[in-house]
Write a structure and sequence with these properties.
0% strand, 167 residues
């Protein structure tokens, strides 16, 4: 049993040494990568700064242009507001009130029930007529087909009678 305990102790010791060694290896790799990054040349941002200056100049000119139009619009609005004159609408409102009073004095509407009943009867009659027309259309189509069939049969009889060898 002592051999197994010693072997497990040695295995644990080898595991700890391996873990510490792995940590040092990883630390070395990290430092190597960091050195590579630090030794790389930095990115030149001067072209971007020049483009930024150009864009700022364009934005400033656009804002100046917009402000000129804003001032022009404000001046136009002021001129229009000067031309607007207040109007007294009290007479208009009085006339509206008079018309409302006259409407209120009108008699109640007439009894429309008989008219509506007659309209409903006419509508039903219209639907019946439409159904009759559809039925007649079907019957006319049937007769037309019968006539066509009879014409074909007549032609066959004529053809048989004109043939000297026929029936």
């Amino acid at each position: 049993m002592k051999i197994i305990e010693k072997l497990s102790t040695y295995a644990a010791l080898i595991g700890v040494i391996g873990a510490i060694g792995g940590g040092f290896y990883t630390w070395g790799q990290f430092n190597t990568r960091l050195d590579a990054i630090e030794s790389a040349p930095s990115v030149d941002l001067s072209p971007l700064k020049e483009k930024d200056k150009e864009l700022n100049a364009k934005v400033d000119s656009a804002l100046l242009y917009a402000n000129e139009y804003k001032v022009d619009l404000i001046d136009r609005i002021a001129k229009v507001e000067e031309q607007i004159k207040p109007t007294d609408l009290t007479l208009v409102f009085k006339e509206i009130g008079k018309i409302r009073e006259q409407i209120a004095m009108l008699p109640e509407p007439a009894n429309l029930k008989p008219i509506l009943e007659q309209l409903q009867m006419l509508e039903e009659y219209g639907w019946e007529l439409e159904e009759d027309v559809e039925e007649l259309s079907k019957q006319v189509a049937i007769v037309a087909k019968e006539n066509e069939l009879q014409s074909i049969q007549i032609e066959e009889v004529k053809t048989l009678n004109s043939n000297p060898l026929g029936g």
